[in-house]
Write a structure and sequence with these properties.
This protein is an alpha/beta fold. The strands form 3 sheets. A 9-stranded mixed beta sheet has the order 15-14-13-9-12-11-10-16-17. A 6-stranded parallel beta sheet has the order 5-4-3-6-7-8, sandwiched between helices. A two-stranded antiparallel sheet has the order 1-2. Helix 6 runs parallel beside helix 7 and helix 14 packs across helix 15. The N terminus is likely disordered.
Length: 478
């Protein structure tokens, strides 16, 4: 069944703070606040309730967000340092299944007094009363249990894109955000940049309208390119010292260690990552999906798959999504191209150099070209852009907060997270569906109301993915 209703922006979360969640009596709260304020004035760190605080200067401790960071290497480390560098944040805990390696060094040095953990469950159990928010920068397959446990405990969550590794997990995370009334943010940083504010101004101002086709592309090399015909999971390599390989798997089936899984290479495997879709789709298609109110597609087609494989993603993919009309907005086709040689045909009026990542947005009257992350779009050809300059609305900003600060202010109840899960969830679902089509090939019909495929039992099984391994089932019941 084709979708008929548009996606609405969420209401700002109710203000929740440490005083409400800890349920301490007023005297305890006053004593703790005075203690921290006194130490902040001297610029030293404070240890209280078993937690060690990284004191930020210039903002009273009672007004800061206590943050725990899960995944502190690579992109997870970048998130931790970015959010922890805000003057309204205190990083109180760092957690990583492979803490003692070079990739974590920069984060550990920035927050030397934060408590360190290998297991996020132990961290939340021991420090739950001293944590307001959790950042999650781990492999795609492990986002879900960390986020679900944190949200069930009333913690705000910042989840690196993509949201999860399956359609069902995305649904459950969206429901948890609403059930536990927490602030949640997908880590598609451009959704707080100029790209977001321009799309908001230009759609409201009637410049971006009557869109019928969106072309997204990502043509840089990927980690799995060149692996050849993969016939299964590799075995025989030794587990690196200090790596908790069992915990790395989280809900997923236990596999032998392989450097083609850790570090980083997990993204190329269906059961652990979302491929180029999950890596770049949230940075390229996010604003088109949101401000065109696309919702979910009723049809997904694998137009081209180069070297399909049951274990890893194709070397190149062309996937077509069909979205129904929404109110007075026409139906939209969204085309996705990945692979180093699989570049889209450029629309009329484009005479520039095609970068490795970006988009074209094609309407009945105007055509737009843009890049990725926070890049703004331009009308093509350039002469048309110049002719219309006086008609273009200014890019209005509702706030100067970047994506990290916007999340922290969301936790404090002072701003609405721009990429909250009722916004980012349907976007992530589009990529979850696209990955299923990459794996199975062909053309899939999807009922946007029942959230079931109408022409493939195998595809319906992939909506949930493999069952969680023993001992991890409880996260699906939170």
């Amino acid at each position: 069944m084709k979708p008929t209703s548009a996606q609405n922006d969420p209401q700002p979360p109710s203000a929740t703070n440490r005083k409400q969640r800890r349920k301490l009596d007023p005297i305890q709260q006053m004593n703790r606040r005075k203690f921290l304020q006194g130490l902040a004035a001297t610029g030293v760190t404070a240890a209280t309730g078993g937690a060690v605080f990284h004191i930020a200067r210039g903002v009273p401790p009672s007004e800061r967000v206590n943050v725990a960071c899960v995944g502190v290497a690579a992109q997870g480390g970048s998130i931790a340092r970015g959010i922890g560098g805000q003057n309204i944040a205190n990083v109180v805990a760092l957690c990583d299944v492979h803490m003692d390696r070079d990739a974590t060094k920069e984060t550990l040095e920035q927050f030397p007094n934060a408590r360190r953990f290998t297991d996020f469950r132990k961290m939340l159990e021991e420090m739950g009363d001293d944590i307001d928010a959790v950042t999650i920068g781990t492999p795609d397959h492990s986002h879900f249990p960390i986020a679900m446990l944190a949200m069930s405990m009333g913690k705000g969550v910042y989840v690196e894109k993509p949201l999860s590794n399956s359609f069902q997990e995305t649904e459950l995370m969206m429901a948890a955000e609403k059930k536990y009334k927490v602030a949640a943010q997908l880590g598609n940083q451009g959704h707080s940049g100029n790209n977001y504010h321009q799309w908001k101004s230009w759609t409201e101002g009637g410049i971006i309208k009557d869109i019928t086709k969106v072309i997204g592309f990502m043509n840089s090399g990927r980690r799995w390119h060149g692996w050849g015909n993969v016939t299964g999971y590799e075995s025989g390599a030794s587990v690196p010292d200090g790596l908790d390989w069992d915990l790395w798997h989280a809900t997923a089936e236990m596999r032998p260690f392989s450097p083609r899984l850790h570090p980083g290479n997990w993204r190329g495997w269906y059961r652990y990552g979302n491929g180029a879709f999950g890596d770049w789709g949230p940075h390229i298609l996010d604003t088109a999906h949101r401000f065109l109110n696309l919702g979910l597609p009723y049809e997904i087609e694998a137009v081209e798959l180069d070297q399909p494989n049951p274990y890893i993603f194709p070397m190149a993919s062309t996937i077509k999504f069909s979205f129904a009309a929404r109110g007075d907005q026409p139906p939209v086709e969204v085309w996705w191209y990945d692979g180093t040689r699989n570049k889209p045909e450029t629309p009329p009026g484009f005479d520039g150099e095609l970068r490795n990542a970006g988009k074209f947005v094609i309407g009945k009257d105007l055509i737009f070209h843009g890049g990725t992350h926070g890049d703004t779009v331009r009308i093509i050809p350039e002469e048309k852009m110049q002719d219309m300059r006086s008609q273009l609305p200014p890019i209005e900003r509702d706030s100067n907060s970047n994506h990290h600060r916007n999340f922290l202010l969301g936790v404090k109840g002072e701003e609405q997270c721009r990429s909250s899960l009722d916004v980012a969830g349907p976007l992530s679902m589009v990529f979850n569906l696209g990955v299923i089509c990459q794996e199975l090939g062909g053309k899939l019909q999807f009922d946007t109301e029942t959230h079931r495929f109408t022409n493939s039992d195998e595809a319906n099984q992939l909506l949930a993915g493999p069952p969680p391994r023993q001992g991890w089932e409880q996260y699906y019941r939170l």
